[in-house]
Amino acid sequence: MFDPVRFLVQIARKSAQLMAGWGVCVFCAGCASAPTLHGDERIVPGAAFEKVGVLDFRRDGIAEYREMVQPGDLIVNYMRLGRAAKKRQWLHAILPHGHSMIVLDPDDPEGLLECRFRGMRRISPEELGEYSFNTVYRLRDARHLDLERLEQFARVGCGRCGDYSFRSWLGFNGDLSPSQPKEILPSYTCSTMVAAAYHYAGVTLDVAHRNRVVTPLDLVRSSSHPNEVAIETEASSLAGAPDRLAR
What we know:
The chain is 38% helix and 18% strand. By secondary structure, the chain is α+β, with helices and mostly antiparallel strands. Strand 4 (112-116) and strand 5 (119-123) form a beta hairpin.
C-alpha cells in the first residue's frame, strides 16, 4: 500500500544526500565557497602570473584576441550563473571561474589547448564566446617557458589523454610533473592539465604539488620556479652561443 508520508521522507532523504554531495564538491573546490566576482583575481604577492586583460566576445572578436594573447598565456573562463544554467554547465554553477586553457598559437585556427570530459583537445578561439568573460594571464618570467615543448605536450597529450580525471576532485591528481612524453597522463582536469603542460615546458607551478583539488584560480594565485627542463634548455643555449658568435 502506498504510504505518502514514507514517500516524502524518502524524497527528502535523497535530496539531502544530493545537497551534501554538492556541498563536498564546493568544499573541496576551495574557491567555490567564497564569492568569485568577475575581475576578482586575488593574485597574491609573488604569484607566477600577471593579468593581461579581459576578452568579452559580446564586443570582442578574433582580432582583439590575437592582439591580446601570446603563446604560453593562461586563459581562465568565467560564466555567470544564469548563462551556466541555460547551457547546463553545472560545474560553472558552483565554480564561476570553472575552466582554464593555454594559448598555443594565436594565429592557429585551433590554437587553444584544453581538457574536458572527453580528454585533451585543441580548440578554436571562437569557443571563448561560450563564456561570459575570459581573463588572460601571462607568466611574469616567461623566458623559462619552452614553447616547442609546450607544443609537443599538446601533440602527445591530444593523442594520449582521452578521459577526464574525476579522482582529481578528491585531490588525487597523479603526477603533474611529466618530463617525457610517456609520463603524460591519460586523464586530467582542465587545471591539472595546465599545471602539467607548464611543467613539461619548463615552469613548475607550486600549486601542482599540493594534495588537494586544483582550480583555475589556484593556478592564477600559484607561485612558480624553473625546473630541470628550463635549466637544460638554457644550458644548451649558452653552449651554442660561441658558435653563433663565430659565424
